[in-house]
Amino acid sequence: MGNLIRVLTKDIDNNGGNFFLDFENAQPSQSESEVWEKVNQVLTEARVILEDLQAYRGAGEEIRQAIQSPGVEGVQERAWAAVLPLVAKLKFFYEFSQKLESSLRCLLDVLTTSGSSPTQHLEQKQSLARQFAHILHFTLRFDELKMTNPAIQNDFSYYRRTISRMRINNLSADEGGEVNNELANRMSLFYADATPMLKTLSDATTKFVSDNPDVPIENTTDCLSTMASVCKVMLETPEYRSRFTSEETVLFCLRVMVGVIILYDHVHPVGAFVKTSKIDMKGCIRVLRDQPPSSVEGLLNALRYTTKHLNDETTSKQIKNMLQPN
Q1: What is the Cα–Cα distance from 135 to 150, expressed in whole angstroms?
Q2: CB 43 within 8 A of CB 49
Q3: Averaged pLDDT, 120-144
Q4: Which residues lie closer than 8 Å to 262 by C-beta, 6 or more apart?
Q5: How far is CA 292 from the centre of its chain?
Q6: Are 146 and 53 in contact (CB under 8 A)?
Q7: Residue 97 has what pLDDT?
Q8: How far apart, in whole angstroms, are the C-alpha atoms of residue 152 and residue 163?
Q9: Which one-letter DSSP state was computed for residue 177?
Q10: How far from each other are the two terminal CA atoms of the chain, in whole angstroms?
Q11: pTM over 0.90
Q12: What stretches of the chain adopt beta strand conformation (E)?
């Protein structure tokens, strides 16, 4: 596919063109290698996290029996033994969210520095743009899996209730326990959110902007809007879409597009849905609507329920109607 193929479409950053990033093959240059290696370790772990989350089945049956038969010998112990290793996994997932946040900040540091336009940054640092895309892809995939698995919150709620009861009864709550009270509170807030990883990234991007007042906010928002436009062009142009070696890359691009829209909407003062937005929201929604519904319903829901400005008065009725559930 080549590292970068220019596609002449609408002007994005007054630099005369949209472009096609090779999300499948871009490799780090020498100047990118240090950041790339650091982020790559986290992305390698991300693949394991998704496999673990996909295989997460929960301790629903053991918990149900423990609640229904509190006096039956051995039932409580079996439920506790089933829940403990699952809570260890949930702790692992939560702690990984903090690593992901750190990686995002590393990439934003490089991709939003002054002196180059967003197009130039993405053109010259394609492997880091690809890693940024992989972080977004992981985030939306994690949240999709979490939203369809109620066992996660059920298991953690049972764990907290049991720990609380142990403390009241002066039993050793820490024996075999994986999570202290302060960490349990933070994990509880994390898993209570419908899209916890997306919230982590949105908060991290917002904090990145506030922590770097010397970097104009446009450096960050233009980087996000440019990537959204890149994904839209890749997806709506058959000539370029056909260059993907896997159908999975189509879904990858869709997730990345939605991810950067949500980040943009949280960071930009007036969001992604106003007429002056640098993201073609109608075009992006049309691209989503053109896909098989089963593959994009979660992404449409992410735009409906995790953006910040969709329901503002400045959002056109047409966009709101386009995002109405069927």
Answers
A1: 24
A2: no
A3: 90
A4: 198, 202, 302, 303, 306, 307
A5: 21
A6: yes
A7: 96
A8: 17
A9: -
A10: 36
A11: no
A12: 4-7, 18-21
